[in-house]
């Protein structure tokens, strides 16, 4: 099948390359010339394990190309995936829909014949219906454009696997006559033939599935972090507690890792946009609990800053603090709303001399927080540290040898912000190790 993928960021570049990997002819489209040049040259402009290989293999096979030209996209195919960003709007909780609308405004007047736009971006409920109206207004006489929604569930760090073998495919279709299911079945013929559940539903439900999934995951993380606060006050241990409740199949251990909480380009803005949309629909009471989910999450960052100050004798001025991690999670270079960078920034603003190291996210971190000190290696970051904060649970940090690390620092004091270090080994090496939700 021939298809375009409009918006080639984390989602779109992955989707374009993986659709080509499934055997389709794909044209990726973006307004960012540098990104398109990079992708055309076979370089993924962000860190995603396995994606560079898929990209180059399919460029070489001639199944994949990239452009900034919407006219070329309009001629190339009759199926278009829409994967542009929907960030939080400035000064509001709502999603900024400018980019999504711009795609329809720029693409639809150029189309001829019968086209389908499959939305993949995470959007407020009601968006697809609105875009359908816009597309109907803009379409040339004799041209038809159907809008359907096919939300994306990929996880950064596992994006290739999640796109080629997703755990489910969700498709929202309009009530009127629709070709979307037939088209989507052909696009996803391979995963469907391998048994991936393919769920067809109405448009609002499909839009809500995505934000509900993210709201649930955020709630699960904040739940354990809220209990973690009680553990801190009562002498309990959050990791033992999470293990114990996690054995209950109805609860499950996944997403019960207490620590610095969630961040990134999705969960925080998605729960806020969900609340904002519910408010517009007069259903704001339904989601007020998400405000608390957000607040619990943000308090964990404050807690780490507070603990660092306490362990520094009450004053951060001039203290050398090493922050291990800048990405919002391991196996990604994404620093959007990163808890690690938030903590590093707060410590720096409180007067600490902060040295940051991340295996992949240094360039992105420098752009967001140019005033922090970025070390070339983990050893350089740890050199003469008064206190170390593990903020992103990269394997490299989990594997640190407490004895060798102890020889680099001034004071053997570490805060495990992700509850991933073997406490006994660090204590045996003479470290004062502190962790969120535990009394060590
Ligand atoms: N990143 C993820 O893990 C993930 C997972 C599931 C869903 N999503 C959703 O997917 C969407 C995209 O997220 P992302 O992380 O890829 O964002 P991103 O910022 O990495 O990418 C967005 C891309 O869209 C491009 N763009 C903006 N306006 C455009 C236009 N008019 N025409 C063509 N391209 C345009 C930008 O240049 C950018 O390359 C969001 O709605 C997000 O919530 C993301």
From TrEMBL:
Q: For this protein, what reaction is catalysed?
A: UDP-alpha-D-glucose + 2 NAD(+) + H2O = UDP-alpha-D-glucuronate + 2 NADH + 3 H(+)
Looking up SUPFAM superfamilies in the UniProt record yields: 6-phosphogluconate dehydrogenase C-terminal domain-like, NAD(P)-binding Rossmann-fold domains, UDP-glucose/GDP-mannose dehydrogenase C-terminal domain
Tell me the enzyme class.
oxidoreductase
Q: Identify the keywords attached in UniProt to this record, alphabetized.
A: NAD, Oxidoreductase
In its UniProt record, a GO molecular function of this protein is:
oxidoreductase activity
EC number annotated for this UniProt entry: 1.1.1.22
Give the pathway listed in the UniProt entry for this protein.
Answer: Nucleotide-sugar biosynthesis; UDP-alpha-D-glucuronate biosynthesis; UDP-alpha-D-glucuronate from UDP-alpha-D-glucose: step 1/1
* A Pfam family per the record: UDPG_MGDP_dh_C
Question: InterPro entries from the xrefs?
Answer: 6-PGluconate_DH-like_C_sf, NAD(P)-bd_dom_sf, UDP-Glc/GDP-Man, UDP-Glc/GDP-Man_DH_C, UDP-Glc/GDP-Man_DH_C_sf, UDP-Glc/GDP-Man_DH_dimer, UDP-Glc/GDP-Man_DH_N, UDPglc_DH_bac
The record's comment on protein family reads: Belongs to the UDP-glucose/GDP-mannose dehydrogenase family.
Q: What is this protein called?
A: UDP-glucose 6-dehydrogenase
Start and end residues of each UDP-glucose/GDP-mannose dehydrogenase C-terminal domain: 322-423
* UniProt cross-references to PANTHER family, sorted A to Z: UDP-GLUCOSE 6-DEHYDROGENASE TUAD
